[in-house]
Amino acid sequence: MNAITATITHLFTPHHTNNHRPRILHPEMLVAIAAVVFVLHTTMQITAQSYPLILGYATNISVEDLLFYTNQERLNHGLNSLQLNTALSRAAEKKAVDMFEDNYWAHTAPDGATPWDFIVTEGYSYSYAGENLARDFSDSKGVVVAWMNSSSHRDNLLRGEYQEIGFAVVNGSLDGNETTLVVQMFGTPQIRRPIITNASISDTNEVAMQVPTPIVSSNTLSRAVKKPVIDQASMQRNVGYTIMGVLGTVLIVDSFLIWKRKTVRIAGHNLAHFIFIVSLIGFVILSSRGSILSSVQ
Amino acid sequence: MRKHHSKQTIFGLTELDLWHHTVLIFILTTALFAFLFFSPSKILQFTIGCIAALLYVGWGVLHHYIDGDLHFKNVIEYILFAVLGLVILTGILI
Questions:
Q1: A271 touching B (Cβ < 8 Å)
Q2: Which residues 6+ apart lie within 8 Å of A210 measured at CB?
Q3: What gap in Å lies between CA A250 and CA A243, rounded to an integer?
Q4: Which residues have a Cβ under 8 Å from the Cβ of A25 and sit 6 or more positions away?
Q5: Contact B45/A287, CB-based, under 8 Å?
Q6: Residue B55 domain boundaries
Q7: Has the keyword Transmembrane been applied to this entry (chain B) (predicted)?
Q8: Between β-strands A177-189 and A164-174, what pairing exists: parallel, antiparallel or unpaired?
Q9: Model pTM?
């Protein structure tokens, strides 16, 4: 018991055995921690490639859910619900596949093709059109919530002129990162079709059930579901949070004890390291957010 | 050592230290906003992380130089914290 207490004291508090600086803050220990994290991440990457069902990125996004949440938001704002259109879904699919093939994440392709080119190519003549994009999200509701939290995406999603919608949910690799792309394309045909109003719908669930079945090809999924035993992204973030949590706590304890004991030593300022660790936690939190883009015509 | 001539405020930090740390908070907060702004690109986000780490080391060197207690050991410590941060960020972003 004494040995355990002595080890904890030596590792995490300033003591005469560690030259009055917690051992975990010594250069060799920081190098060791960085090396362990690096080896751990590398091992996870290799394991994820070989055994994606055990370790991988968890995803659960479906066209049905995206349509449901989108229409729910529109109905909540007194707008018409949108009908799933196969031409718009095909355009969305081709846009998503094009982004993976040419490795870009933008409304306009490197060759200058706009979302409207994809829509027109599918034979859809529009009077109004729009596009919302999302990537790196793990569930459908998260995608729609992110769109609603962004003013440009919300304006697009809640545009009253739209009558129809198309979706594509596509898995692939962008910038070397495995991801799920969501393409949402809005449209209003030049020849107007009757609008389903809020008053004519009693149950939003029915809206999602009544729409045509979305198109499915080898590249496109109506539902992207991946449930590995261990979610790689969460695990990597948790490793980061744990290390930063431990280091942050040790820095606070060290600062307090050094100040209390009036110890003089040569070392970096704990407050500066603590500020850096807090910002690093911010970076990790922000990196867990998916990305969105919106465009309107 | 200029530090010992300055008035101590809290936890042994001088008024000058507090100003320096305010600058550090400003630098890293700006980096966080840039990180958020460039969220569509993981590569750009990683670049911002690298710049933030470099600025952190630069800040540490300058801060200790002004304080008159710049030591090789300090520089190594800032570099190692920056490297550890980048290793964690690399695993998450790349």
A1: yes
A2: none
A3: 11
A4: A247, A250, A251, A254, A267, B77
A5: yes
A6: 10-93
A7: yes
A8: antiparallel
A9: 0.74
